[in-house]
Amino acid sequence: RRQRQMCIRDRDKRIYIMSIKPNTTDILTHGQNEMLFIIYQKEKVARDVYRTLRGIYENETTFAFMQYAEQRHLDCARELCEAYGVETSKINEDRLGEFESPVLQTLYDECTKKGKQSLLDALEVGEFLESTDIEDLEQASIGMPSDVADVYSKLQTRNITHLGAFQSAILKAA
């Protein structure tokens, strides 16, 4: 397993390097493999919701920024899956709003349904997704190898920034 690096650029054009260097001695349990796959799919949900809402609220820059940021998160989650041999080929990242998991399909459908009601509702959907991602990444890190936990910690940090952006946009829209 080789080290992979990804560059993530934030809203202020700062660059963050995320290294994904699998621990060659670590073998994930079935449950840990499933968790990697779930986090990967949840990143796709967030990206797809933001892309959908960006198409509706073209003047709201928060969605434009977030759809690209979530693509970077999706890339990191996919890289982790690949590094640990977790199969992701059933997921077509190019198909907007389509998910294998009925639970995630429902999450996408409900988020976009609420988000289409108004700009404020759409921003609240973003706040909800970021809050949920922060909690999910925290839980997913428990018992994971240090390389996975490190990437998840960096993703959490970015999600906290995203959460703040949505909360600021909510205050402006309210």
Regions with little confidence, pLDDT below 50 for 5+ residues: 1-11, 13-17
As a whole number of angstroms, the C-alpha radius of gyration is: 16 Å
Q: Structural class of the secondary elements?
A: mainly alpha
> Major sheet: order of its strands?
1-2
Tell me about the biggest sheet?
2 strands, antiparallel
Terminal CA distance reads 49 Å
Following the backbone from N to C, one meets helices and strands in this order, namely EEHHHHH
> What helical percentage do the residues reach?
55-70%
H/I helix tally: 5
Q: Please, what is the average pLDDT?
A: 88
Strand content: 5-15%
- The rough form would be described as globular
Question: How many DSSP-defined strands?
Answer: 2
List descriptors.
174 residues, 7% strand, disordered N terminus
Would you mind describing this structure in some detail?
With 174 residues, the chain is mostly helical. The chain is 66% helix and 7% strand. It has five helices and two strands, in the order E-E-H-H-H-H-H. The chain has helices at 30-56, 61-83, 102-115, 119-141, 146-173, and strands at 4-9, 15-20. Strand 1 (4-9) and strand 2 (15-20) form a beta hairpin. The longest helix has 28 residues, at 146-173.
Short description:
This protein has five helices and two strands.
Question: How would you summarize the topology of this molecule?
Answer:
Blueprint: E1 4-9, E2 15-20, H1 30-56, H2 61-83, H3 102-115, H4 119-141, H5 146-173
Antiparallel strand pairs: 1-2
Helix pairs in contact: 1-2, 1-3, 1-4, 2-5, 3-4, 4-5
